[in-house]
Amino acid sequence: MFNYLLIGLLSISRLFVFLPVLFGIISAIILFAVSTLDMCRMIYHIIQAIWTMTYPESLHLDIVSDIIGSVDLYLIAIVLLIFSFGLYELFISKTMLVKTNVKLPPILAINSLDELKDKLAKVIVMVLVVSFFQHVLYLKYQGPLEMMYFAFSISALSVGVYLLHKDLKFKKKPRQRVVPGKEHA
Questions:
Q1: CA dist 177 to 39, 167, 170, 183, 185, Å?
Q2: What is the model's pLDDT at position 41?
Q3: DSSP state string for 16-75
Q4: How far apart are the C-alpha atoms of 48 and 30, rounded to whole Å?
Q5: Residue 85 located in a structural domain
Q6: How far is it, in rounded angstroms, from Cα 29 to Cα 31?
Q7: I need a labelling partner for 93 at 20 to 30 A (CA). Which of 14, 138, 167, 178 fits?
Q8: Cβ contacts of residue 62 below 8 Å, gap of 6+?
Q9: 156, 97, 105: which is closest to 132 by C-alpha?
């Protein structure tokens, strides 16, 4: 009796995971819409500047900043989608008996919580890199020390992204079984 009650509670508990999945997808859709509206607003301002022949001094900087900001929002929306699909794959679809023929893209195929964390971490690092470059656009450099800090920060970001991709290549490399006493050609 207690066993059936426990199994029933565990079966119902997966429905609680459905809430973050649902709200994650809704949040991603909202971010996609907001970012797209931001891009449309930027295009409108560009067309307006061309039409009225007024060319503000900060137009280039504003365009680049708006594009980087939109890319940042798109990346955050992708983080939410990966999180939602990952939770769904791990907790809901694996426990349901219904099989679907829908083939997910490899980035959304999640088999373990560690895979979900790895994929989220990589996309979050890219969001931080994009956000960093958006803020760097508006920095005013007072001297060579600030330029050196800027160069070091770009180098640190580059090394971090390189190490993330190197980690990905290392994990994909198949391991060869070494048998003692046998020579490899």
A1: 52, 21, 16, 12, 14
A2: 94
A3: HHHHHHHHHHHHHHHHHHHHHHHHHHHHHHHHHHHHHT---TTHHHHHHHHHHHHHHHHH
A4: 27
A5: yes
A6: 5
A7: 167
A8: 42, 45, 56
A9: 156
Q: What is the mean pLDDT of the chain?
A: 81
Classify residue 11: in a domain, yes or no.
Answer: yes
What's the pLDDT at 185? Answer: 47
Domain count within the chain: 1
| Cα separation, 151 vs 93, whole angstroms | 46
**Backbone torsions φ then ψ of 111, nearest 5 degrees:** -110, -15
Query: Which residue matches tokens 């940042």?
Result: 72
Classify residue 155: in a domain, yes or no: no
The larger pLDDT score, comparing residue 167 to residue 88, is at: 88
Residue 65 domain boundaries: 2-138
What separation in angstroms does the CA of 148 have from each of 63, 113, 143, 156? 26, 40, 9, 12
Question: What's the Cα-to-Cα distance from 45 to each of 52, 75, 94, rounded to whole Å?
Answer: 10, 24, 48
**Whole-model pTM over 0.85:** no
Q: Is residue 154 part of a domain?
A: no
CB 138 within 8 A of CB 64: no
Residue with tokens 């955050």: 76
DSSP letter assigned to residue 175? P
Q: Are 55 and 49 in contact (CB under 8 A)?
A: yes
As a whole number of angstroms, the distance between CA 108 and CA 7 comes to 29
